[in-house]
Each structure stands twice: as C-alpha cells, then as structure tokens.
Write a structure and sequence with these properties.
This protein is mainly beta. The chain contains 8 helices and 41 strands. It folds into 3 domains: 248 residues, no CATH class; 190 residues, Lipocalin (Beta Barrel), CATH 2.40.128; 96 residues, Cytochrome c-like domain (Cytochrome Bc1 Complex, Chain D, domain 2, Orthogonal Bundle), CATH 1.10.760. The protein has a 5-stranded mixed beta sheet, with no helix packed on it. It has a 4-stranded antiparallel beta sheet with strand order 4-41-40-39, with no helix packed on it. The two termini are 35 Å apart.
C-alpha cells in the first residue's frame, strides 16, 4: 500500500513538474491523452475510446514513430487468440492494459507492452458476430469497461475482468428488452461499442435486414445501474416529428433504421451524432411508402435527453441498402476566413457530407436531384435524392462499358457479355424484376465500417474506399411455399441465393458447407451468426427444423408445406424479394471492372479538394505477374499521427500493415503479417515506448491459412 501511495505521489509530482515547464496535456476531440508528444521520459499515453477519441478522429499526438524512423518498425509482441474466425476489433488501451476480443466474443486483457494475458472473461454467450470495440467510463476513481457479447452489454471491472453485480442483471443488460411491446421480434446484435457521456452509455444495435426486424431505437442507459434513461425512436411514434413520412401505423410493424455503426460526441456541447441505416425490408419498401425518417439519417441529439436537435437524411426511402457505414468525425475547419466546428459523414455510395455541427447547415452545397421512379408493382421511390459535388466522390459513381476489366482478353469479353444484360445508370437507379441493376460502388461501399481519420492540425480527412461493382435485382415470391423454403427466402436467399449455392469467394455454398454439420451445429450458427452473417435467434422449433432441412436438402420435412404461417410468427407476405448480393467478378474471381479496386484518399475539408489519392492493396499473385497497383477491397480504417504518418491495414488479400506519409501519400513502410489486418489499428505509449497494434485474421479468405491474432509493432 505504501509503495502504491508513493508511486501515485511521485506521478503527481512529476506531472506538476512537467506542467511547470510549460508542457500541456493534449486534448484531442474531447478525450484526454495523458503524456507529451515529445520523445523521452517514462510515461503512458492511452487509446481510451473507440476511434481514439469521442470525436472519432482516429488521431494520435504521439511522434516517437515518425517519418524518419518508421522504416525500422518491427513486431514487438504477438498474442494468438487460439481461435478460428474473424477479428475486426479496434482495441482500447488504458494505463498499460489492452482490452480485446477473441472471435467467439471472449473478452481479454493484455499487458500492452508485452502481450501477456492478464485476465479473461467468458460470458457464456458465444457468437461469430464481429465485435469491434469497447466503451470505458471513469470518474477518476471508479472505472468500468463495457463489453458487448451478441445482445448483452457487460459492465466489467477493468482490473479483474469480473462483472460489476450492481449493473443490470448481475453485471449485464439485454438489449432485446426496452424496445416497446409493439416492436417486432428479431435479431439484436451489438457489433459496435456504445458512447459514454457523463453517467450515460448510449447504445445502438444491429437488426435483421428483412422482416421481422426490431425497432432501431437509440437508447441511453445509466452506467451505474443499467437502467434505461432515454430513448429516441428512429421510426417515429404518433405525435412525434417525422411520423408523417411513413404510412400510418408503420411504427407497429417496421423495424431497422438502426445505428449499428456507432456514434461520436461533442462532449463540451453535449451533442451526440448518430448515423442510422435503412429500414426493412432493405430492397423492397412497398409497406413503408414515404421518405422514412429517421432511416439513413445523421442525427444530432442532446446527449442528456435524446432530444433531436437536427438531422440530415442522405437517402430518401432507401431501397439500395445505403446505410451510413461508420460514425462521423468531428473537426474544426477554416472556411471563408472563419473557424467552423464541423461534422463530416462518409457514405457507402462514395460521397462525404460536411455540416456545421451546431446548426446542421451544410458546409458545401447539397442538391436534391431527380432520379427515375421504380417500375416494381407496389413500390414507391422518392423523386429526388441529395447529392454533393464538393468534395468530389471518393469512389466511381457509375459503371460504363469502357470501365470493364482488361486484365485478360477473355475476362474482358466475359465482362462485356454480362454488362450487356445489366441496367447501369449510376446512383439511385431502382432495382427491377427479372434483371440485374449495377450498384457502383457496391453494397459494401465506398466507405465501410472501419471509418475515417482526421488530422486536426490541417483539417484533412483520410478515407479508404472500395471501388468495385455489385449487382442486385428482385424476383416475385412464390406463394404457398413450405415453412423451410419461406424461412430460407426471407432470411438466407439474399446472400446465399435462391439455389443455396452462394457466390464463390463472397458467400459460401450452403450445399457444400453444411454436409458435414449436424443439425445442432447448424442451429448454433443460425442462432449466433458467423462473420458477416447475423444470428437469427427468433427461428426456433418447427420453423428452425424446416429451415435446416431445406438448407441441407432443398426440400421440406413432411407436413411443412401445409402450414400457412411460420412458427416464429413470420408470415409469407412479401410480394418481391431480393435475388441476392452479387459481386461483379470475372470467372477467375477478380473484379470485372478496371482498377483501382480500392483507394486511399486525403481530402482537405477546408477547401473540399483532394490532397492525394492512391490505390490501396494488391493481389500477391497478380503482382507476381507484373500487375501491380490494382488496389483491393478493404475493411478497417486508418490512424493518423502527429509523427506525419498514416497507418492502415484493411486490405483483403495482401496481409500488409502500411505506413504512408500523411501529407503526400508516399509509402514509407510495409510489413506482411500472418493474416490480413481487417481492422482499424490503435497506437499508444507504455513506459515511454510507442506501439501500433492491429487485430489480424483470414476469415474472409477461405483459401488462406486460418487464425486470429493481435500484433503490436514498435521501434527496436
């Protein structure tokens, strides 16, 4: 005890001495980063918030690793989870402890300097869903680590990993509750951590993307007790603003419009910025005619009460699955001689919208442009959609014949034949029945969940982007199908196709992948999800049995064709369904469009102009054939430092962590890891040494060696 007290007193005295020498604590986006940006001296600098700060800037003031020495960067430690599966976690570091997940959503604490495991918490709720981070609360004396496992939020003692019994039900709350009796039942999964404001934890959730789906309400809970403190209805109830943008009573049956990507906070003003996704069903909205507020919106909420301050809807009546894919970012820019506190929001369709964060006024013009109406019976589409030309889109906005692949003459001819059968007109072209429509950039962006970074000193936004085409269409639902076929059509066909064969390299064939699984093992995957597949815990009993039989055999168990309604309460009522996510790949599995297939972009938000733009990622086998600089699909975001660097993994196939000069885009260092870094790195300092850590896994690439690890880099 005396030694601990002496250590605290020494730390305080050292801190006072530093301040007396003119050293100031660094405040970045409302979060205190303890320590100095100068090198030397024993100190720790935390990475205490998802995204680095509550402003979501993914920025560090550390300079020990910089342009002059980054080429010397080497692995300092590696921690193997010992599990198979995907790993997309953006870890936290507080004090000298790193908090992380395993692929099955077990929580671990590691010594941030050595990678040694300190404790492990297994909630008993196992899922293959991605778990991308944590929330951390402290009043300076007490501390709570908030961790998500599927539908549950756990309050853990960050020193011991034990649940805090006074929170919720013996340490956890179930986010399937508190949605209102009228909310449909369905999937609830927590892929992104909540946001802490004072003594509140604000949570979003992931829902199903077809009916039934739960309400996507934004909810705030007391950090001490787990009691619900406020709710914002993303599908408005009667008497609430926005109710008129839906059919009367839609709030009783419509779900989605949820915040799955996380939020950011202007802590000084107490304003929470929350992006939302589309309402269900994603691609056919006949039962939700209207603009559908507050789906596809950036919401500015009073963080204390949940009161709406302003909103912006990026897609009216979304039928293209154009969710906001990541939290926005807060920064201050210089515009027309004035300093403006701004919020910037990236999108799947490759546009970035920038607003005055207090008033919601656009910094750059946003125009409502006309687009074609849907020809699908019963569908309603908005006559206009918001677009901006400044900044220019960071992904190509339409696919034309001269943009098809020329990788080989055979691939080009194949792409031409396929393209001639598609509808391709750019953004917001409605899907049609019996024909594929090009979605460019594809359903996975543009921007994705990794988010973007900001250099607060220059007002530069850094965003990695996918730049490949997908296609989608609709088909009429056959009436009178059995329970298994109906459940498959409503929940599985969008990814795995009506024929259960999936798409090579994108979605697995259920015919090939289920033969070796028992019904119990298949049921576990259905309930808990795996990778990008959500769980479907609402599918139980006869419905689940019928679904599993249909998935394995393509036929119904005896008697199921006579049932009129699914046992889960999910009626077979939709007239049209999505034919499936189809990535436009050539016969060899490469994008059927010309490169770049992935890019890294630096945009000066003071002017709206690009500072630089480069391809990001490569295919090693193509590089060996002399085809380089193609870029590749990428998932996971960048981190920027005052040392002049941008660190990013993200690339699907080359397994590299890279460091670029943030001012020029020049590649300064790269390292090939055991697995792909499909996650956002974090950087921190322990005992005067700066580290860069990233989660790595190969779950996206079935042909590659499998595993999941964390690897930290430092200077020798």
């Amino acid at each position: 005890m005396r030694r601990r007290l002496f250590t605290r007193l020494l730390s305080v005295r050292l801190g006072v001495a530093m301040l007396s020498l003119g050293a100031a604590a660094l405040i970045v986006g409302g979060s205190l980063h303890r320590g100095l940006s100068a090198q030397g001296g024993a100190r720790n600098v935390d990475w205490p918030v998802y995204g680095g700060s509550k402003a979501g800037q993914r920025y560090s003031a550390l300079t020990q690793i910089n342009r002059t020495n980054v080429a010397q960067l080497r692995p300092a430690w590696t921690w193997d989870t010992g599990e198979m599966g995907g790993l997309e976690t953006h870890p936290l570091m507080v004090g000298r402890t790193l908090f992380a997940y395993t692929p099955s959503q077990t929580v671990v604490a590691l010594d941030a300097a050595t990678g040694k495991q300190l404790w492990r918490f297994d909630s008993g709720i196992h899922s293959g869903q991605p778990d991308r981070g944590f929330a951390y609360w402290t009043d300076g004396t007490h501390r709570i680590l908030f961790a998500n496992t599927l539908y549950a939020v756990w309050a853990l003692n960050p020193v011991t990993g034990k649940p805090i019994e006074s929170f919720g039900n013996h340490g956890s709350i179930d986010l399937r509750n508190d949605l209102g009796a009228e909310s449909p039942s369905g999937i609830v999964a927590l892929t992104t951590p909540g946001t802490v404001y004072k003594d509140l934890l604000v949570m979003g959730l992931r829902t199903a993307e077809a009916e039934p789906a739960v309400h996507g309400d934004v909810r705030a809970y007391d950090v001490h007790t787990g009691k619900l403190r406020w709710t914002f209805h993303t599908v408005p109830h009667p008497g609430e603003p926005g109710y008129e943008t839906w059919p009367a009573g839609a709030w009783k049956y419509t779900g989605g419009a949820n915040n799955w990507a996380g939020s950011v906070l202007d802590e000084q003003r107490g304003i929470l910025y929350v992006p939302t996704g589309s309402a269900v069903t994603d691609f056919y909205g006949a039962d939700r005619a209207g603009n559908d507020l507050y789906a596809n919106c950036l919401l500015a909420l009073d963080a204390s009460t949940g009161k709406l301050l302003w909103h912006f809807q990026a897609v009216h009546h979304d039928i293209w699955d154009r969710d906001f894919p990541a939290p926005p970012v807060l920064l201050t820019i210089q515009r027309n001689g004035k300093r403006i506190d701004a919020v910037a929001q990236t999108t799947k369709h490759g546009q970035v919208f920038v607003f005055d964060r207090v008033t919601g006024q656009p910094i750059f013009p946003i125009d409502e442009k006309p687009f074609p109406a849907s020809t699908v019976p019963g569908e309603w589409t908005s006559p206009t959609q918001p677009t901006t030309s400044t900044p220019a889109p960071y992904a190509r906005q339409r696919l034309t014949a001269d943009m098809l692949t020329t990788r080989t003459p055979e691939a080009h001819r194949w792409a031409q034949e396929q393209f001639s059968t598609f509808t391709s007109g750019g953004q917001f072209i409605p899907l049609s029945v019996g024909k594929q429509t090009v979605i460019m950039p594809g359903f996975d962006g543009g921007a994705e969940w990794g988010g973007d970074a900001v250099d607060p000193a220059t007002g530069t936004l850094y965003i990695n982007s996918n730049d490949v085409a997908w296609t989608g269409g609709l088909e009429e639902v056959k009436q009178g199908m059995g329970v298994g076929a109906t459940a498959y059509s409503n929940n599985c066909a969008g990814c795995h196709g009506g024929n259960r064969k999936g798409q090579a390299g994108v979605f697995p064939s259920l015919i090939d992948s289920t033969g070796h699984l028992s019904e119990t093992q298949m049921a576990e995957v259905v309930h808990n999800g795996k990778g990008r597949m959500p769980g479907f815990p609402n599918l139980t009993g006869d419905t689940l049995h019928a679904l599993l039989t249909y998935v394995r055999t393509g036929s119904e168990p005896p008697g199921s064709t006579d049932k009129k309604e699914l046992a889960s309460g999910e009626a077979d009522t939709a007239k049209y369904r999505f034919t499936g996510y189809r990535k436009f790949l050539d016969p060899d599995g490469y994008p059927a469009v010309a490169p770049p297939w992935g890019t890294l972009n630096a945009i000066d938000l003071n002017t709206g102009q690009y500072r630089w733009k480069i391809p990001l990622g490569e295919y090693p086998e193509l590089v060996a054939k002399g085809i380089a600089d193609t870029g590749s699909e990428n998932y996971g975001g960048p981190v920027v430092t005052a040392g002049g660097l941008l660190f990013i993994g993200a690339t699907n196939y080359d397994r590299k962590l890279r460091a670029f000069d943030k001012d020029t885009g020049k590649l300064l260092w790269e390292y090939t890891m055991d697995f792909a870094g499909r996650a956002t790195p974090a950087t921190y300092m322990v005992d005067g040494k700066q580290y860069v850590v990233i989660a790595i896994s190969n779950a996206h690439n079935a042909k590659a060696p499998q595993g999941a690890k964390y690897v930290a880099f430092a200077l020798p």
